[in-house]
Amino acid sequence: MRGKTKPEVHGHRGSPLRFPENSLPGFLDAIEAGAGFIELDVQASRDFELFVSHDPHLPTGQLIHSLVACEVPGCPKLAEVLDLSARFSGFGFNIEIKSYPDRPEYGPPPDQMARLVLDCIRERRLEQRVLVQSFDFRVLHAMQALDPSIELSALWEGRRRDFAGIAAEARTRCVSLHYSLIDSAAVRAAHDAGVRVLAWTVNGRDAWLRMMAAGVDGIITDDPAGLIQFLKT
Q1: How far is CA 36 from the centre of its chain?
Q2: CA-CA distances (angstroms) from residue 75 to 42, 90, 217?
Q3: Residues of 137-149 as b/e, b for ≥16 C-beta within 10 angstroms?
Q4: For the chain, which domains are there?
Q5: Exposed (0-12), middle (13-18) or buried (19+): which is 17, by Cβ within 10 Å?
Q6: C-alpha angle with apex 169: 158 to 65, nearest 5 degrees?
Q7: Could you give the residue ranges of the DSSP H alpha helices within 34-180?
Q8: What do you get for the CA distance between the two ends of the chain, in Å?
Q9: What's the CA gap between 109 and 80, in Å, rounded?
Q10: Closest CA to 40 of 172, 216, 220
Q11: Which of 148, 133, 49, 136 is nearest to 92 (CA)?
Q12: pLDDT tens, position by position, for the chain (233 residues)?
């Protein structure tokens, strides 16, 4: 992504302004609009089936990890979403692995979760078409140990820190930060250290312009079609 005049477009949970978030129609909409990546969240059921859901609980209040796969309605499986790679080329998957250090009952241990996701990626030979990100750096450490070829990004929303320092702690070459933490000086310093910068969740013309002026490598947005049209004009 570095060196491009325009940032890559990541459809945040698909295209949630037009379709339900983390849904197959939303992902298809983002892909057909021309998004470089579709961004999605992964949870695991009790029998270790991977589902695409931002929240660990269903709307009914049931914890996904307390249910077996056949008891999880309304969420696409990670395998179903990754299978879109066989129908469309020219885009990648930004996979956020959900992990809860303070609530271990919400999912498998970090190393097991990393292995489950990697197995799903490898089954489809998508190692070069994925970016894996997480707020839990233990997941990133585990994924890096399992397969150093997988591109990783450290999610961060805490206090303002040096971007390269975050990447060093996570053992990544990319960071994904809330756009309020990003300015051009911080991005330049990150690039000088060989670290790429993704901004989330960036919506609307003014915010897009600000991130473009800062020089970010990618923009994660709820409106991928709108951002793509904006970049064209």
Answers
A1: 12
A2: 10, 25, 30
A3: bbbbbbbbebeee
A4: 8-232 (3.20.20.190)
A5: middle
A6: 70
A7: 78-82, 110-123, 137-146, 163-170
A8: 20
A9: 23
A10: 220
A11: 133
A12: 344 579 999 999 999 999 999 999 999 999 999 999 999 999 999 999 999 999 999 999 999 999 999 999 999 999 999 999 999 999 999 999 999 999 999 999 999 999 999 999 999 999 999 999 999 999 999 999 999 999 999 999 989 999 999 999 999 999 999 999 999 999 999 999 999 999 999 999 999 999 999 999 999 999 999 999 999 98
How far apart are the C-alpha atoms of 33 and 18, rounded to whole Å?
12
- Please give the structure tokens belonging to residue 104: 């271990």
Contact 139, 152 (CB under 8 A): no
What is the distance between the alpha carbons of residues 47 and 200, in angstroms, rounded to a whole number? Answer: 32
Token duo for residue 140:
């990133």
